[in-house]
Specification:
By secondary structure, the protein is mostly helical. It has helices at residues 11-42, 48-86, 96-135.
Length: 176
């Protein structure tokens, strides 16, 4: 009996939407650059609000791209951890017990990966709904996703101000 499961996320569509968002962002950056050059050359200060608006919109689009990348980072992290857990496989010494162990280890991860894929699908649909009209005719721009940024080192907790020793009480001489 062969069970066919429906694919939760179309990875080709995911890549296409992401690539078109990259192109859209690149176009916004280029427009901002042209506007800034025009402002400098022709001293058209009335274009400053337009440049700020384009730059702000570019930041919003870039955040959308980073949100999509964050989901990819999650999947990559889980896959890497799973691969580390399995270790290197020596086909010559492959046993039923090893295969069973790998299958048991992968079972909980399937649920986690499914949840991430569902979030990816929702994020992709959200991006298409928000930017679909703007990106539908764009040529995809394939960019390599940068490696996941290392978490920033925790800032050292500010030291509590040291309590100074109470000042010595002034010596009082008894009046004789």
């Amino acid at each position: 009996m062969v069970v066919v499961t429906k694919q939760v996320l179309d990875l080709e569509e995911w890549d296409l939407v992401l690539a078109k968002l990259h192109r859209y962002h690149a176009n916004i950056q280029q427009e901002c650059g042209i506007i800034v050059q025009t402002i400098r050359k022709e001293m058209k200060s009335e274009l400053v609000p337009l440049a700020e608006e384009k730059a702000t919109h570019g930041k919003v689009v870039k955040k959308q791209i980073r949100d999509l990348w964050a989901l990819e980072y999650e999947i990559e992290e889980i896959q890497t951890e799973f691969a580390k857990g399995i270790g290197s496989i020596n086909i010559e010494e492959l046993t039923d017990d090893f295969v069973e162990d790998v299958m048991l280890q992968s079972k909980p991860l399937q649920g986690i990966l499914m949840a991430i894929r569902l979030r990816q699908r929702d994020a992709c649909e959200g991006a298409k709904a928000k930017y679909g009209e703007a990106i539908k005719d764009l040529e995809p721009l394939k960019l390599v996703r940068p490696p996941k940024p290392a978490p920033a080192p925790a800032a050292p907790a500010p030291e509590a101000p040291k309590a100074e020793a109470p000042a010595a009480a002034p010596a009082v001489e008894a009046a004789a």
